[in-house]
Design a protein that fits this description.
The protein is of the alpha/beta class. The chain contains seven helices and 13 strands. It has a single domain, classed as Major capsid protein gp5 fold. Helix content is 24%, strand content 29%. A five-stranded mixed β-sheet has the order 7-13-10-8-9, with helices on one face. A hairpin with a 2-residue loop joins strand 5 (147-149) and strand 6.
Length: 309
């Protein structure tokens, strides 16, 4: 006569939980962070990111003169450390055997994966939320009016104040035209994305898409609507005041075309599962984890920020 052994139940539990996990990992989910961070694969735990000291301007050759040679210089090194981010759960054998309410599905399914995905969103948005108070590799806040340049007496300014408005959007977009490389020459950067909290979406669309100047009794043409080059990125994880009809919220313009400048998502390993049956207490245990690091590199490049106040 066929019998069922404890090891058989354990094997079934492991197989079932793994299947549930893999199914939910593959479920498509909105990943806000992908639009506001540059992905950089890195096998080492600590990745090093340097700002290149750009060459000075070209000059006219003087006959029989050897001329001066610039040297390649590196400065403002940012270190990004990758960590293991995890979520652990356990389920008793009884809960699994008498699973009338989908206990395994509820714990090893979508909620377990969602905690990791939520944490990644919080980690990336947290870099933006801390732009005005966190110090970068150049010794000033990530968003600052005084980013020093290695080979120039000029400074880069990627900080402004003021709430969302047509004039402030124009001002911020134009600020990209005054971002210099480390030698003091124009860097050639431009705004590609406008990043705001999701609660500001209607205000942003009114500002950008109105044919005439919004909220005015005039026939003045809205040049922002004519421009039409900025992609709006909405993110619910950005800081926002919870009171008032027009809450204060920071907002940002990004140049996502730059290489390894701004917010970096340093990746090592995607979401994985390790699960096992603990013989001592007959519980099925599982750990979902992934390995990555987040940071802000190349201080003064990649974005311009406003506190919103």
């Amino acid at each position: 006569m066929a019998t069922t052994r404890m090891s058989d139940i354990g094997a079934l539990m492991l197989a079932g939980s793994t299947a549930i996990f893999e199914k939910n990992v593959k479920v498509p989910a909105k990943e806000y962070w992908r639009e506001i961070a540059t992905v950089v694969p890195e096998d080492k735990q600590v990745g090093n990111y340097d700002t290149l000291g750009n060459l000075g301007p070209a000059v006219k050759h003087e006959e029989e003169s050897a001329g001066a040679y610039d040297k390649i210089e590196y400065n403002n090194r940012t270190n990004i450390t990758s960590y293991v981010w995890e979520k652990k759960v356990k389920i008793t054998l009884e809960a699994n055997v008498f699973d009338q309410y989908g206990v395994v599905e509820k714990q090893f399914g979508a909620p377990m994966i969602k905690t990791l995905r939520d944490l990644k969103e919080i980690n990336v948005a947290g870099v933006y939320n801390d732009m005005f108070t966190s110090t970068g590799a150049d010794g000033v806040f990530y968003a600052s009016a005084t980013h020093p340049l290695l080979n120039s007496g000029k400074v880069n300014n990627n900080l402004m104040t003021g709430a969302l408005s047509t004039e402030n959007i124009k001002k911020m977009q134009n600020m990209f035209h005054s971002i210099y490389n480390q030698a003091g020459a124009l860097h050639g950067t431009r705004a590609t994305h406008l990043l705001v909290n999701e609660d500001k979406q209607f205000q942003v669309f009114e500002l950008l898409n109105s044919a005439l100047m919004p909220w005015e009794l005039s026939n003045t043409k809205n040049s922002l609507e004519m421009n039409g080059k900025i992609k709006v990125v909405l993110n619910p994880y950005l800081t926002i005041a919870s009171t008032g009809t027009d809450p204060v919220a920071p907002w940002f313009m990004l140049d996502m075309s730059l290489d390894k400048a701004g917010v970096i998502m340093q990746t090592k390993q995607g979401i994985s599962l390790h699960n096992w049956l603990e013989d001592d207490d007959l519980t099925l245990r599982g750990t979902a984890y992934e390995i990555y690091g987040v940071g802000c590199t190349a201080p003064g490049y990649g974005f311009i920020a406003s506190t919103g106040a």
